[in-house]
Amino acid sequence: MFLSIIIPTYNRAHLIEHTLKSVLDQSCDDFEVIIIDDGSSDNTEEVVRPYLSEKVRYLRIPNSERGAARNRGTELAKGAYLNWFDSDDEMRSNHVAQVKELCTKHGNPEVVNLMYQIKDSVSGKITPVQSSYTTGQKQRKNFLIEGNYLACNPVIVRRDIALANPFIEDRALSASEDYELWLRLLAKYPFYQSTEITSFLIQHDERSVNTMTNPDKLETRFLTFLKYIDANEELKQFLGTDYPYFVMKNYLILAVDLAYNGHKQKGFFYLKKAFREHKSALKQRVFWATLKHLIF
Question: What residues make up the domain containing 276?
């Protein structure tokens, strides 16, 4: 079997059926689906039951957060490659075929990634996601330094690599555990990329990044993320002289999130930390936009 599509889910009974239908509507059928129910309190099991088969498996686990749910799916996977796909998003019918073509082209690579677009759940408006993978014709080795544009859906990892590099199962890291893993993998392996768009990230009010507004939780998430990055000497060596810039970018993103959610005092605090970490913060448009928002 070529691809294991692992779908972690938590209280997405009203959304997961659309995702499942899109996953099963593939032009290439060389895949399996593993649904990991992370202790849902809704009727998720009832909704997915009609779709279960030899090709589609379901496992319910005690609530452990998404990193742990993805790891459980990884342990059960039979495919040569793994794809962790979110239970509120949409897969285009070319996804598996394009992944297989990309892996064949690059001769059993460790990691590949494709592109996705953002689709608004209400208006249907589609927004392209710009890749920072290349600058002109030159491939950037540290292309994730500006932030996590990848998401989970378009990233495919060879099974042996995934088993050797699991997601960190720390609740405090929730919503950044994928970014941490991509960086950890990028320090070890090349990412082979296709510009083919094979999935949609569905923008809706219940997305975890939209509902995480508590200032303490936001702060804990970013500081936990930076703690794990700082403890990874291999990754810090990979980032090299760009490491302070990387830390600055994360302080800046935290300041933006805090400011947007009305937490001005903490927003100012991390805006200043961003500047102290790397003076190029002053060249970032978002720095001045956030400062304006905090003042006015």
Answer: 212-295
